[in-house]
Amino acid sequence: MLCDLCGGVTEYVPGADGMRCPYCQAVQPLAVTGPAVRRPVETLRGRLPVTLTDEHRVVCPRCATASTPALLSSRCPACETPIVLELGGEVRPGALAPFTLDRELALNALDRWAGARWFAPESLARVSDAASITATFVPVWVFDLETVTRYVGRRGDHYYQVETYESGGETRTRSVRRTRWRQARGKINRRFTDVVVPGVKQHRPARLPATTVPFQAEYLSGVATLRYTVPPDQALNQAKTSVKSHIRTACLADIGGDERRLNSMVTTYPSMDGDLILLPYWTGDYSLGGKTWRFTVDGATGEVRGKRPYSATKLTAPLVALALLVVVLVLLSL
Questions:
Q1: 3 state SS of 94
Q2: Structure pTM?
């Protein structure tokens, strides 16, 4: 999108839902066109991840530098101008979740996360001072599955019988629990919505944000956007596998009784819808103790994930205190 005032290439402003011109700083709001709508999965099947070739080379509109970006959107390696690639045979995202956290809020969330680590080194409390951070869209597959499952199993109902037995030369009675088994079969209808499957193997989002908007390419300008590496057919199979345990639980509940056995279940899918959705993350790293530590900050919720170093002093101090306590208790007991 070009700036209305000076004609410069505008960039998406994470956390503001607008496009800003880097030259005159004018901000243009992005209009939401309506609710995002899922697509039938048949429109997604067979769309393999893109293999980069010379055909994917792009020329920077500002400095004419040629490059072959691995990302769907990035910046020119020479002049930092935002570059958004044209989508070819890959699946076009149907929706995205806008950033609700700007860069400052993301760094604040990172500092709170670092400061709350009990065994982190003291120097980790202000990790944002040494962190590099980038606004990044991460692709996920999201499916709505309508399922019909026919099952065969067994239902066990408890009952009690009184029996006699000899003990110490006396005849006594006791109540013994037994189980009456009978065959059970039935049909379960379940609908699963917002089943999330990672679009890239190295990132596993837990849930879908509450707010998504229809995809607009303008959102990608100035933001790094990963391409999906998990094909839609593979993602659909993962979605089916993830709901299988819930279907099994529903079948067992339908059998009822005091005990139950599930011998077989066959699931069909009368309706399956899905989409490729981009989720907002601030991704980055920081250096500490001679190592580089990666982290992500959820751009919608502020949740921080990542590995961090541990302080040897903080780790050993509780152990030393525990050892001294044991010694004191032993001495007092003498």
A1: coil
A2: 0.82
Looking at the chain, the whole-number percentage of residues with pLDDT higher than 90 is 47
Q: What is the DSSP string of 31-70?
A: PP-S----EEGGGTTT-PPPPP-GGG-EE-TTT--EE--S
Residue of 272, 274, 136, 275 lying closest to 215 (CA atoms): 275
117: three-class secondary structure by DSSP: coil
118, 132, 136, 149, 287 from 290: Cα distances, Å: 21, 16, 26, 55, 7
Residue of 200, 154, 164, 192 whose CA lies nearest to 50: 200
The residues spanned by each domain of the chain are 1-31
Give the CB-side neighbour count of residue 214, counting CA atoms within 13 A. Answer: 9
Residue with tokens 């629990």: 177
How far is it, in rounded angstroms, from Cα 68 to Cα 59?
9
C-alpha distances in angstroms, 28 versus 1, 18, 79, 198, 262? Answer: 10, 5, 23, 32, 59
Region 203-210: what's the mean pLDDT? 76
117 contacts: CB under 8 Å, gap ≥ 6:
124, 308
Closest C-alpha among 49, 61, 37, 10 to residue 220: 10
Q: What is the pLDDT of residue 317?
A: 47
